[in-house]
Design goal:
The chain is of the alpha/beta class. The chain folds into 2 domains: about 1-170, NAD(P)-binding Rossmann-like Domain (Rossmann fold), CATH 3.40.50; about 180-270, ProC C-terminal domain-like (ProC C-terminal domain-like fold, Orthogonal Bundle). About 50% of the residues lie in helices and about 15% in strands. The protein has helices spanning about 15-25, 40-45, 65-70, 85-90, 110-115, 145-155, 170-180, 180-195, 200-225, 225-235, 240-250, 255-274, and strands at about 1-5, 5-10, 30, 35-40, 50-55, 75, 100, 120-125, 135-140, 160-165. The protein has an 8-stranded mixed β-sheet. It has a two-stranded parallel sheet with strand order 1-3. Helix 5 links the parallel strand 7 and strand 8. Bound molecules: NADPH dihydro-nicotinamide-adenine-dinucleotide phosphate and (2S)-3,4-dihydro-2H-pyrrole-2-carboxylic acid. (2S)-3,4-dihydro-2H-pyrrole-2-carboxylic acid (A1CAB) binds near residues 105, 174 and 179.
């Protein structure tokens, strides 16, 4: 059970919407309720549910100001390029003691602290938050107190695990766990294409590949073993898997991931520069 203070989510798209789903769990009480804003009515309408005031800015241009007025936590879920403008818009309406928590990639607390008067934190969640299996990196800003950090932590714990880290490491974390679900889905797509290429139907391929990823992930979680040990148990000496793994090693997947995460990190730095 967790009890949270009034929350506004400005920009409840993929990520903001995922966090909203956590806050709506029966085990969570948000005292004073949840306000969410989006630009379009279509999106706002889909989020209207008891306990949630969902505002479409195309109908209520002052909606962000209305949403933050009595909020203790203001979650910023818009695209990185929009964060500064949004903060300039809401700064005069923020309640005393309100904390701003941004999930935007790259945008630093220093940038945000230059705009809003109070405490600012950064979070980097991921989309498995939708099913309560998110991993969120959380970093304090220079003005946030231990109490602010504890409240922000409690918000993200409604959707999974939280890792408190220094802000200097949050962009790196983003390249692993923030973007990570996309890497996993990409691997699933590639292995599925291979299966289809071998003559399996799409449905058969999906059963095999999705089931294998889910089963392997659950085995990893349930066994408490290291992935290398679980891999060893699949790889019979002189068997078939050994040949397949040798091909993957020859392709140097580790180097590919090094390059991919370096590219994501460079992009985070570009987003920080605005
Ligand atoms: N997707 C992910 O896996 C992750 C994303 N993030 C971060 O989350 C943020 C949002 O990304 P994502 O959820 O993917 O993007 P989405 O486009 O899905 O969500 C952005 C939302 O913001 C709304 N919006 C646009 N302008 C405003 C405004 N002025 N005020 C309030 N709401 C507005 C949009 O509404 P409408 O559609 O109606 O225009 C949309 O629903 C980004 O900063 C990203 O870096 C962080 C971690 C992971
Ligand atoms: O792709 C992005 O920029 C965001 C941040 C991490 C995951 N999605």
């Amino acid at each position: 059970m967790s009890t949270l203070p009034t929350i506004a989510i400005l920009g409840a798209g993929s990520m903001g919407g995922a966090i909203l789903s956590g806050l709506l769990a029966p085990s969570v009480t948000v005292t004073g309720g949840i306000r969410v804003t989006n630009r379009t009515e279509a999106k706002a309408a889909a989020l209207r549910t008891p306990g949630v005031t969902s505002i479409a800015l195309e109908r209520a241009p002052e909606g962000n100001l209305e949403a933050v007025r009595d909020a203790r936590v203001v979650l910023v879920g818009v695209k990185p390029a929009m964060v500064s403008d949004l903060l300039r818009e809401i700064a005069p309406a923020l309640a005393p003691g309100a904390i701003v928590v941004s999930v935007a990639a790259g945008v630093t607390t220093a940038t945000m602290e230059a705009i809003v008067p109070g405490a600012v934190l950064r979070a980097m969640p991921n989309t498995p938050a939708v099913v309560g299996r998110g991993v969120t990196g959380l970093s304090a800003g220079s003005r946030s107190t231990a109490d602010d950090l504890a409240i922000a932590r409690a918000v993200f714990e409604t959707v999974g695990e939280v890792l408190e880290i220094d802000e200097s490491r949050i962009d790196a974390l983003s390249t692993i766990s923030g973007s990570g679900p996309a890497y996993v889905f990409y691997l699933i797509e590639q292995l599925t294409a291979t299966a289809v290429g071998m003559g399996f139907t799409e449905a058969e391929a999906a059963t095999m590949v999705n089931g294998t990823f889910l089963g392997a992930a659950e085995l990893l979680a349930a066994s408490g073993e290291k992935p290398a040990e679980l891999r060893r148990r699949v790889t019979s000496p002189k068997g078939t898997t050994e040949r397949a793994i040798a091909e993957l090693e020859a392709a140097d997947l580790r180097a590919v991931f090094d390059r991919a995460t370096a590219a994501a990190l460079a992009r985070a730095r570009e987003l920080a520069a605005g």
